[in-house]
Design goal:
The protein has 102 residues and is mainly α. The protein has 2 helices and no strands. Helix 1 packs antiparallel against helix 2. The longest helix is centred in the middle third of the chain and has 31 residues. The termini are far apart.
């Protein structure tokens, strides 16, 4: 089940990047559909459809992120108490003591 959600998550990520790159920016960078050709959709219609599509894909991406986070935390035993790295330090020095020569 986790693998299926992960694959869906990756596909949503790719789709989100693609939809964002298709959108027309203020400077006209990577956008498509210039001019008033009267094609399939008007500029306003294309903008509304792309904005709606972006919102839907982003919502699904966030949902799959939450599901994957839940999967990641399942099966872990809760820690008894928070531990510090200082608690794990050795109490005695690890180097051997060499006696001084007289």
């Amino acid at each position: 089940m986790e693998t299926i959600v992960l694959v869906i998550h990756l596909l949503l990520a790719l789709a989100l990047v693609g939809v964002i790159l298709i959108q027309r920016s203020e400077g006209g960078g990577l956008g498509i559909g210039g001019g008033n050709a009267g094609g399939f959709m008007t500029n306003r219609g294309a903008t509304n459809a792309l904005s709606r599509t972006t919102a839907i894909i982003a919502t699904a991406f966030i949902a799959t992120s939450l599901v994957l986070a839940v999967f990641a935390t399942q099966g872990r035993a809760p820690a008894a108490a928070p531990t510090s790295i200082l608690d794990q330090a050795p109490a005695q020095p690890t180097a051997p003591q060499v006696p001084l020569a007289r």
